[in-house]
Each structure stands twice: as C-alpha cells, then as structure tokens.
Amino acid sequence: MHHHEEHLKSSDLLTDIVIGMSDGLTVPFALAAGLSGAVDSTSVIVIAGIAEIAAGSIAMGLGGYLAGKTEQDHYNSELKREYEEVETKREIEIAEVKHVFAEWGLSEDVQNKATQEIIKDKDKWVQFMMKHELHLDEPDPKRASRSAVNIGISYIVGGLVPLSPYLFIHQPTDALKVSVLVTLICLFVFGYFKCRITGVHPIKGGLKVMLIGAVAAAAAFGIAKLIG
C-alpha cells in the first residue's frame, strides 16, 4: 500500500511539471518573439516577460489548486452520498456489492460469503463501494496546494528559458535568435522525456512539442511585425 502511494505522488508531480513547464516554455517564448518584432529595447521585453511569467504562474497555480479542490469536493460529496445510501437503501447496496464480486467471476457461494463479510463494517463497506463501484480513490488532502506550487514553479522555470537571452543581449533580434535556439532545444528535450515517460514515441513527441512552440513564436513575431 505504501509503495502505491509513493507511485501516485510521483505521477501527480510529473503531471504538474508537464502542465506548468509546457505553458511556461511556450507562452513567454511567443510573447518575447512578438515583442522582438515590435520594439527596439530588450529592457521592455524583459519587463513584459517577467510580468507575464508572474501572472502566468499565479494563474496556472490557481488553476491547479482549484482542480485539486474540485477533485476533493467531488470525492467527499460521493462519500457522503454513499454513507446515506448504505443507511437508506441497504438492500440495493448489498446487491451492488454482490454484483461487483460477480463481475470478478466469483462463484455464487463465494459472492454471498464475501458480501456478508464486507457489510459487517459500514466504513469498509462504503470504502469498498467508493473504490469498486464508483472507481474513486481518496485524494491526498494536500494535493491542491502541492499542485499549485508545483505548477507555478514549473511555469516560472520554463518561462525564464526563452527570456534569459534578453538579459544579456541588448539587441532584440540578436537575443531572439539565441532565445529561439535555446527554447526549441529545451522544448524538444522536454517533449522527448515527457513522451518517453508516457510511452509515446519520444522523437516524434519531442518534435511535435518543439513545432508547437515554434509556430506560436513565429505567429506572434509575424503579427507584431505586420501591425508595426
């Protein structure tokens, strides 16, 4: 059981990093590219980029927090309902327990014995129904706050990658060239490892993520130039 929890937390952390990092690399990259086609000062791009990273990390972190709270609230709501149904619809709930065992392929005799064992303890009965009828696992109560922090930090880390060349290079177009090179490499590496972990073809996945970032930045740069 302990090993399962560690695995679950690792999976949650990976999900948060993917969400935060993917947007963090792409959105500030597109913003910086767009401004490079419209302004002559890297200081303006840096200020705008930092402001976007701050706002984006807060917005993304808040989104992760709300998603975690929603999951927790949904679980608690279903848990309360299941306790009520065990009290008010006892026979129906007993039949549902037996149905679960039937789906597992147990014999009629074993179904009856297993059902009688489960319904002896109301708490275990409800937990059994939550997991095997509703297919809901109890969320980590700290998941929402952890998700907010993980996503927010990942967004900041990702956003600093395309913005960093503008801190050292004073010509926007020159900084953009370095930013494009560095960010596309990071997008490919990020996409490669993300797809390798999730079982998708890593090379294709890396190229896909890199292409999305390149298209977003090119569109922003082109629009800025066109308007300018």
Give the helix proportion (percent range): over 70%
Mean pLDDT: 87
Strand content: under 5%
Q: Would you report the number of β strands?
A: 0
Mind telling me the C-alpha Rg?
25 Å
**How far is the first residue's CA from the last residue's CA?**
60 Å
Give the SSE order as H and E letters: HHHHHHHHH
**What's the domain count?**
1
Number of helices: 9
- Biggest sheet: strands, sense, closure? none
Q: What is the molecular shape?
A: elongated
Structural category: mainly alpha
Unreliable sequence segments: 1-9
Description:
The protein is mainly α. It has one domain. It is 86% helix and 0% strand. It has 9 helices and no strands. Helix 2 crosses helix 5, helix 3 packs across helix 4 and helix 8 runs antiparallel to helix 9. The longest helix is centred in the N-terminal third of the chain and has 47 residues. It is elongated and about 80 Å long. The N terminus is likely disordered.
Descriptors:
228 residues; mainly alpha; 9 helices; disordered N terminus
Entry summary:
With 228 residues, the protein is mainly alpha-helical. It has one domain (13-227). The chain is 86% helix and 0% strand.
List the helices and strands and how they pair.
Layout: H1 2-36, H2 42-88, H3 90-103, H4 108-118, H5 122-132, H6 143-163, H7 165-168, H8 172-198, H9 202-227
Helix pairs in contact: 1-2, 1-6, 1-8, 1-9, 2-3, 2-5, 2-6, 3-4, 8-9
